[in-house]
Amino acid sequence: MKRRDFFRNTSLTAAGFAISPLLFSADENTTLALSELKNEAKNIIFMVSDGMSVGTLTLADMYAQSAMGKHTTWVENYKNGRFKRAMMDTASASSLVTDSAAGGSAWGGGVRVPNGTLNVGANGEQYTPILQKFKKEGKKVGCVTTVPITHATPASFCVNNESRRNQPEIAEQYAELKFDVMMGGGDQYFSADKREDNKDVYSQFVNAGYDVVKTKSALKNILTSDKPLLGVFDDDPLPYTIDHMSDEGLQNTIPNIVEMTAAAIEKMKNHPEGFVLQVEGGKVDWAAHANDAPGLINDQIAFDQALRVALDFAIEDKNTLVIVTTDHGNANPGLFAGRKADENFARFRAMKQSNTWVMDQLTPNLSSAQLIDMVENAQGYAMTSDEAGTIIDHIKGLDEEQIKDYYKQPFEKYAQIQKKYTNVGFGDMHHSADFVECAAFGPGSELLPPLIKNTFLHNMMLKAVGITNYE
Questions:
Q1: Distance between CA atoms of residues 289 and 311, nearest Å
Q2: Minimal CA–CA distance to 435: which of 45, 57, 32?
Q3: What is the Cα–Cα distance from 348 to 295, expressed in whole angstroms?
Q4: Is the full-model pTM beyond 0.85?
């Protein structure tokens, strides 16, 4: 698939929805108290670009301007004043630097909890996750993600668990909750062949009346079904967007975030009581951790296209609040100065594979010449022999299994080499405590003041749909 075709075809039109122009003008109001709701929303779409530093948003927008001649959806709606905009403090109960479990739980349970926990306080207090509240009110609810559906961010809206690491247990918790749409990766947490306890969690969903799908074609075939949906499309996370776009086999079998978002809306949009959907671009965070610039930029672009799907629906529907934000910054990427900074940044347009894909091609017997050729074919620049030697030296002495170990792969070294050819660099490989972007559109967006704590969004969502007994 050509890159321009991706941008053209992955809007709401490609998903079978009608597109309306963005009709709303800039909001002239300033800070509004949480009690000053003007119009109630029927639906909420909560969009999370996990681990998105402001540098990630900037890089994606510069890429979009270079590749398409226009801003990303997110930035365009800032430019035109259609988004109510805020900065958000993302701290957890245990640290100024949150993880995704605590960051998501601030939204999900409305209380800051220690890092690593899902809506569970330091003394074991349990805070009811927001999708359980909305389900109790009669709404359809669901989650979409590009990482395992049992991962921290979707789980933070759904369950109480003392550890985000308990993904096999979280899969079973989902079966008990009977939510309406759950889509992402994570087959290893549902399949009897892959779980340590050999439980067939898929059968629990089937017995509960779910459509269970594992391919893109199967997803398309059940969109008119009235049954709840579990879609699990890969063993762990879904592929990076750039790798997905370069592999016809992956495109034919695994839906992207845009297609999953459109499918989730289609499944729930006609429910009389409305719906609440969380959509997570989880691989944005994974790419930031790996200092994987081509993976990062393209997954942020894909997330932005999913945001376009949500906004197009909200504009047509006129009863939907869209919130778009992130749980924390990560790695603080940016385009840095250099004589050829613009020219080097343009190299991303020709790249066909992520840095993670390159790491996965490393073998014990790989030569420097072979690595140079591989990188030039995959990413469009020719490393020097010394640079290739740095990577080859790193993997010397590692066996096949060790080379496939994420924690042993030379991501940081490779990113530092790549910076010489792209001028994109990273400050670290971990989460940051930066304030982050948060925006809202539609009925209830007027509730968003300019600076918030992450917990604010929990009560804002409840208030937006008219639930007042949320204390």
A1: 29
A2: 57
A3: 10
A4: yes
